[in-house]
From TrEMBL:
Membrane topology label: Multi-pass membrane protein
Domain Major facilitator superfamily (MFS) profile: 1-193
UniProt-recorded name of the protein: Sugar transport protein 13-like
Localization per record: Membrane
GO CC annotation terms, alphabetical: membrane
Main localization category: membrane
The entry's keywords: Membrane, Sugar transport, Symport, Transmembrane, Transmembrane helix, Transport
GO MF: carbohydrate transmembrane transporter activity; symporter activity
Length: 283
């Protein structure tokens, strides 16, 4: 379940909803006039809708991982370019963006939105719906939707404050998370292209180097081996202890054993007195 929760969190930490919600404010801050910022927001929204068709066509041809990895690189570079331009040209109360740099910013934002639209946008919902076990599918999807809505709210509320305080650093913040989520895809996200949902466990989850360890048959084999090793170790330890004790008994005289038992009895009697005294003082 944690895997699917992470997918929903990463989908929001791309920064897509922050950019889509506050696109007019963002473009106006970059120096666009009010009408131009509104038009730029409309353009990014149209790109988001239209480019989703790319995912519809390629998702079962190229595969999920290919789209996610390519989009990760594209989103990383796009946000990095915007952060560099804002860091160099946009100041607190003025901006030095020329016509060329303004066009570059719009192109980079559209590039980021388009890469999201064919990767984390639709696949953030598709992969959990495919990989969730059938017996936990409804509950898992409910948790995924709840997580997505929660982090949509958090990012939407925090974006303006972060943008006002760290300025171009907000894009570096999202760039860092794009790098983290791309690494997550490389290491933990299996390819599910062409695999029916009914066969997902046998053909995908049990074949993955990491997720296979969480299945019952694998765990039973490992627990059986662990129990065998543990019982063998305890049996060996008991045999060695018995052998040592037997040899010690042969070498020790009865008188020495009597003195040892006497001193042990005195120690136990002393601790018993201390324990009773403490109990009485607490009453």
């Amino acid at each position: 379940m944690l895997f699917f929760i992470c997918l929903q969190i990463f989908q929001q930490f791309t920064g897509i909803n922050a950019i889509m919600f506050y696109a007019p404010v963002l473009f106006q801050t970059l120096g666009f006039k009010s009408d131009a910022s509104l038009y730029s927001a409309v353009i990014t929204g149209a790109v988001n809708v239209l480019v989703t068709v790319v995912s519809i066509y390629f998702v079962d041809r190229a595969g999920r991982r290919v789209l996610l990895l390519e989009a990760g690189v594209q989103m990383f570079l796009s946000q990095l370019v915007v952060a560099i331009i804002m860091g160099l040209k946009v100041k607190d109360h003025s901006n030095n963006l020329g016509h060329v740099l303004a066009i570059i910013v719009v192109v980079m934002v559209c590039s980021f939105v388009s890469s999201f639209a064919w990767s984390w946008g639709p696949l953030g919902w598709l992969i959990p719906s495919e990989m969730l076990p059938l017996e936990a599918h409804s509950a898992g999807q409910s948790v995924a939707v709840c997580t997505n809505m929660l982090f949509t709210f958090i990012i939407a509320q925090a974006f303006l404050s972060m943008f006002c305080n760290i300025k171009f650093g907000i894009f570096l913040f999202f760039t860092f998370w794009v790098f983290v989520m791309t690494t997550f895809v490389v290491v933990l996200v299996p390819e599910t292209k062409g695999v029916p949902i009914e066969e997902m466990t046998e053909r995908v989850r049990k074949q993955h180097w990491f997720w296979e360890r969480y299945f019952e048959d694998k765990l039973k084999g490992k627990l059986h081996a662990l129990n065998y090793l543990t019982s063998s170790y305890l049996d060996l330890k008991l045999r060695i202890s018995s052998l040592i004790f037997e040899r010690a008994l042969k070498k020790c005289s009865p008188a020495l054993l009597s003195w040892i038992l006497f001193y042990l009895s005195c120690i136990l009697f002393f601790f018993n007195l201390v324990y009773q005294f403490n109990c009485q003082s607490c009453l």
